[in-house]
């Protein structure tokens, strides 16, 4: 009986750690800007995990003011904006709970 209780306690602790020890998502915010410094609206924004992840594969669209925002598991990501013929990308370190802010310049 003691062995079963110990096994059950270890299993419960492992389960709690798996559900409660997972790192919280990190918010990454920024703007899509043209080389001229003006915001770019309606750009498709995709992310690729360099470390951390995985990242759900879907494109976001920048707002009328060029702003974008997305939550990621802690790690490093390449965020790319596609605005017609213009593209640009940045690498983001999303390893701190404070998140990050980054601007993506397209058309360079």
Let me know the CATH homologous superfamily.
Carboxypeptidase-like, regulatory domain
The coarse silhouette is elongated
Helix percent reads 10-25%
Assign the structural class, choosing from mainly alpha, mainly beta, alpha/beta, alpha+beta, or little secondary structure.
Answer: alpha+beta
**How much of the polypeptide forms β-strand, as a percent range?**
over 45%
Largest sheet, strands/sense/barrel: 4 strands, antiparallel
Give the radius of gyration. Answer: 19 Å
The CATH class name reads: Mainly Beta
Give the name of the CATH architecture. Sandwich
Series of H and E elements = HEEEEEEE
Low-confidence stretches: 5-21
How many DSSP-defined strands?
A: 7
Count of alpha and pi helical runs:
1
Mean of pLDDT? 80
Q: In total, how many domains does the architecture comprise?
A: 1
Strand order of the largest sheet: 3-2-5-6
Task: Give an account of the 3D structure.
The protein is of the alpha+beta class and 108 residues long. It has a single domain (24-106), classed as Immunoglobulin-like (Sandwich), CATH 2.60.40. Helix content is 18%, strand content 46%. The protein is built from one helix and seven strands; from the N terminus they run H-E-E-E-E-E-E-E. It has a four-stranded antiparallel beta sheet with strand order 3-2-5-6, with no helix packed on it. Strands 4-1-7 form a three-stranded mixed beta sheet, with no helix packed on it.
